[in-house]
Batch of 4 targets.
Target 1
Amino acid sequence: MIIRFFFSFIILCFLQIDCYSQESASPPKKEQSLKSKRKLRKADKKKWKEERATQRAEEKNRDAHHKRVQTKAVYKRMKQSRAKSNSIRANKRDPFYKRWFQNNQKRKRVHITKERTT
């Protein structure tokens, strides 16, 4: 546990943020009114939502076309290989960075012993 915090401390030491004590010598920017800023943010958000919707629709259409093009045998083989890969992947151990910072109570396993009936 001490080693875990030691390594995380070392990593944090290397991730220093550069801070400047003085501002740049550029001329001061003109202040925009709150209403105009709000309008700009609203327009940007609307544009972002539209782009995201079109991108998701494209991905959905691409996936549907990919499935539609496959023959029945190929689609069955794809399904079987996907199930096999999921089952193999489920038995793998968590990566070290997840295991290090897991709650200790989750890692400890309680072994329940059954009483013998003789």
Target 2
Amino acid sequence: MAKFSLAKLKFLGADDDNDVEVRLEDQQHINQFGRLNQRMHDVEEDLKTKRSEHELLDDASNEIILADDDEPIRYTFGECYYEVTKDQCEELLDAQKDKVAEEMTALENELKSVQATLADLKAKLYGRFGKNINLEE
């Protein structure tokens, strides 16, 4: 995350006409943008992981359908396996899928909130600095 001094931003090759005074408020917006941008990337990665986990649980549910009704199923809990009936396994998988779906919804909501705040900060910073600041990836 780049930090700028509270003096003047002077860019290489820029004329004296393009000097921009960086106020404390501007510095705080720049820092907040950097933190939120990193948080957005972290949330996107977490969301990708949760989606993958949800797909694996769906696949496991589909495999359980093919299992015999009287055959015990080994269900993993942490690093241990224990045997459950087919019905119990379906209930456990459904509960786990619901939990992952709730976590995905929470991450999606957080991502939307972060993106909205980033858009607002971009508008403020580009309005203040114009082409003298680059907030793109």
Target 3
Amino acid sequence: MDFGEWYAQINRRVDLRIRNRVQTLMQGMHRSTFRGRGDDFEFFQQYTLGEETGHIDWKASERLEDGFLVRKLREERVLEVWVAADLSASMFAGFSTEGCKQRLLLEIMAVLGRSVIRQQDLLGFIGFDSAIRTVLPPFRSEKALVHLLKTIWDFQPSAGERTSLLPVLQFFETHKGSWKQKKRQFILLISDFETEEDWVPMAQRIAASHSICPIFLEEKVPENLISSVDVLTYRDVESGEYETVDAKAWLRLLKDQKRREREYCLERFQASGIKALFVSKETFSIEGFLQFLEEHRF
């Protein structure tokens, strides 16, 4: 399957019923509690000493014998959604090309991107492995989304680069511009979380000011992966090392390792108070993903 065929399929899956649901879920979530300059008039208010004179409506104030009227405008909140995506080698390796975590990342990006752009919100993207590799400033163009998806589709990970979450989290702690405004941002941190770093405290600090949601990508181990093979040689895609192992013992060890990693991450997320989503190719659905976003309440 090439990229064009894949993108056509994902577009067909986001059918009219789902698109209507997307609009329903996201409507009403963007009105800001802050008052300030915007496009929509709210009401007139008597001018008080200390306010900016640029807010005075001189024409309306002519009707007053004394004082001035200030136009209060409703600030329409434009939601800024950021996707921080793991592009390390482990995301591109798997038991099959169609089932690897990179394809799952693409599906999540496609559904989220089309949803955000349809609402005229902004979508930013950061790609990382052991360091930040690319930063795409927030956009609302479908052409830019397609280009981003095609870039991820064609991306070749660097050999020997392990996953590190600290650089990308530090970006969100120090990023200037709109990030430092009082508006809340929404971050989706998408990774397989194959790292030994203690990144949760930094995520908690970010969560104090902005919504952050880790999405844990899983790949199920096929039950019929090994039948009559006794010994196999495999290569660790992140370290580059080869190892020869007993096939059935390795399979049992792999399943146990994935189970323990999942339990450990789930325990950390629950202890930190950060709500996370665990998803695999078999469990991902557009409807379920949108429901999760609704519950997370942008």
Target 4
Amino acid sequence: MTDLPILLVEDSRSSPGPASRALDQLRGRPYALVKTSTLAEGIEHISRSKFAAAILDMTLRDGMGLPAFLRFQGKAGTVPIVVLIDRAYEDLGVEATRRGALDYLIKDEISGALLDKVLRLALERTHTVLALRASEARYRTMFESTAAGVYQATCDDRILTINPAFCTLLGYTSEDEVLKLDFGTHICANFEDHLAFRRELEASGEIRGREMSLRQKNGDRLVVTHSARLVRDSRGAPLYFEGTIADVTAAHKQAKQWSYEASHDSLTGLLNRREMERRMQTALENAVIDRSTFAVVMIDLDGFKNVNDRFGHGAGDDFLRHVASSLREAVRAGDLIARFGGDEFLVLLERTSEEAAVRVSQSLLKSIASNEFLWTGQSVSAKASLGVGMGSASDATWVSILERADSACYEAKKSGGHCVRQFSGEGASSKRFVAAGKK
């Protein structure tokens, strides 16, 4: 039983009306009542107080029929209304229920049991409405306060509703600004990604945790995890889609940074040994697929220990960064460079011939020698020994190609350094290539 009273609006000028008499028949008087005898008083009460239900006589001295009901209903809101009518005007009761009344009762047929049954139905409806309101209030609070962006959009990408977090995440100050935007072309940073997202959503009905890039008001990219579902009508036709976005830009950047650090040398910014080994395996797999050849160039600096001994390790680190920069200038687009360890570097040349690999190696040697390194005003010459090893689909592993390059590099260093050697045959090195200017 609700704590809210029942409002009874019934003409009782000469004697208690049928609803009052029926309520008197109930033992224990379980209902709290507020009684009025005119439409004006009823409207005043329903406007300023809360009621669980209302009983309205449709033959009051200051209001009769459907117009009286509609005036009263306009102030009652969601309060369930039971109307009282005479038998001769039962059609008014039918029309009132069609217009929103809970039920109608014929005055001459009202009994305590019947009225009690109707009021209990009204109170159940009130409880349902109150529970629904509480649920809506909780949802609205969650909708307004959640840190995730929440939205609804039509199937042609027009924004229907958003929460404040959606505005904030995209850098807008008002909801009206966002409601003018098209979700696919204005908010999503990549329209093709959005089309793929929508196709999958229409096929599966729901997507969870898809990483996407959105465009902020100032043009910056925002990386989010996007979850959405497609809402359909009773016939299965799409109505709209709704979803949430959570900002993961910082985590995305951190993950990229971790990935970069895991695959790159911290001193020079080149690939590290582990990543180059992975790339050589990929190059071998590509050679199997397209029957191409590739080359590995091993580079060992000549006299690096003297730099450390003469100027200190700080100079040695700068010297290695200087050499890394020289190597970048000499390779082709798509060639890969790694610091393989200490003062050793490795260059991977995919889909190349022996002749092209030798030409690139000569360019590397020339670039290292020609870029002057200065430390505290003193010039330090940079020289290196280079070994070229060719690889193809016939090789079992990338290790054998690396061994060829290493063997050729050893031969270059053993012969005096500052030159290029190409591996050939049974571990021997043929053709000695010397940088221009070497005596």
